[in-house]
Every structure is written in C-alpha cells, then in structure tokens.
Amino acid sequence: MTMLTVVQRFCTRTGLTSPATVYGTTDPQIRQILALLEEEGSDLSKRGDWNEITFEATHTTTAVEDQGAITTIASNGFNYIKNGTIWDRDLRLPVYVIDGENWQAAKAMNLTGPRYQARIRGGKLISNPVPTAGHTWAFEYISKNWILGADGSTYKQYFTLDTDTILLPESIVLMGLRWRWKKEKGLDYAEDFRTYEDQVKDSLSRNGMKQTLNMGNPSSVVSPGVVVPLGSWITP
C-alpha cells in the first residue's frame, strides 16, 4: 500500500476530505497526518524483529581490531543486529557478542580466544582477538528503513513521494495513525490504543516463520560436536 493510499483511507475513515496528493501539500491537516504517519512507522519499526525490514549483511574481515563502521557493513539503514545471527562462515563458528564489561575484562586479562568476540562501540564493529583477514562474517539486522521507493530498490526512513510503499503491516499502521491523530486532536483514544497494542503483539507473534520450541533441547544453535542418531541403545 502506498503512502497516498494509506492517507486517503485514513481520511475517508475519519470523515476528512481525501487528498489527491500528500507529499508537498500545503494543507496543514494533511501535513500533520503525514507527520503522524512517519512517527507511527518509525516507532512501529522498533517494536520487534519484523521480517519485512530484516536484512543480511556480510563482511570480509581485516586483520585489525576495528572492522569499520557498522552502518557501512550493514548499509541499509542499520538499527540493530538480531541476537545469535553473527557467524564466521569460514570457521563455521558463531562470533560471540559481548558487552562492555566483559570486553574490558577480556582486554585486561589479555584473553584472546578461542572464539572471536565482538561488540559495537562508537558505531564501529570491533573484534577480540584480531581476526584473520579474509574471513566472511555474516549476520542479520533490523533496518530503520520501513519505506520502499517506487523504484523497488530504494529503502527510506521518511517519505519523499506519494508512491512510496509502506513495508510494515498496513492494518497496524492505520490503527497506529488513528490513535495518534485522536491524541493530537484531544479526543478519547484509549480504546483505539488498547486495540492497537493488542494487534501489534499478535502480529509480531506471527510475523515471518517461527521456530518450533523444544523444551527438552534448550539450545537450537548448530554447534560442532558428535551427532548420535535417535534410537534405542543397550545399556549395562
């Protein structure tokens, strides 16, 4: 659904005159609706791991601690790395993500292995120990670009054309726009907000493909080890 279509549907539902165009309009009411729509999309994009704005990044390591700006490595509007997705494809091992406390402890005690540890600091992806040059690191990340341009290849955080497409669930975006508009107008929005929150949680719970949880196997990560086939064994 394009930005223009969303605004037109909202206006029709709200009893407002439906505009023929939105971007660049001088109508203060339509300009306000557009601003609220951008606010809704920006906030909604941060609510969870929406598959529509999930992308993969690959990086060829260099033999230095600083691997470069994370926004350059993950160039499509990087927001955050999805937990547990960063792997060294050459070693076929995960890269462990650590926080500042553990990073400083590792540096102070000169711990350098056996697995690579990484974190983002100052907008840079840094690694301990220094990785071997030429390895491929890959990970999935959530983008802040929730808008797709009419050309089908340009991702955006803000609208620049009426024909820009909204990537997030359209029904949720409309609900969010509705309660935000009512709030701005000083109208009662409590019920609309409650319904919106319920729908966001429900949509996130079903968004994309979900892995089946196995309570008997707490780790779902494939790690090196001995694979024992299922079956019956003779025990002493």
The major pleated sheet works out as: 5 strands, antiparallel
Termini, distance in Å? 65 Å
The number of E-state strands comes to 12
What is the rounded Rg? 23 Å
Percent range for helical residues? 25-40%
Q: Are there runs of 5+ residues with pLDDT below 50, and where?
A: none
How much of the sequence lies in strands comes to 15-25%
Backbone structural class: alpha+beta
Mean pLDDT: 91
Number of helical stretches of at least 4 residues: 6
The string of secondary-structure elements, in order, is HHEEHEEEEHEEEEEEHH
Using the alpha-carbon principal axes, give the shape. Answer: elongated
Short note summarizing the structure:
With 236 residues, the chain is of the alpha+beta class. The chain has helices at residues 3-14, 28-45, 70-73, 100-108, 170-184, 190-206; strands spanning 54-60, 66-69, 78-81, 87-88, 93-94, 96-97, 117-121, 124-128, 136-143, 147-148, 155-156, 165-166. A hairpin with a 4-residue loop joins strand 4 and strand 5.
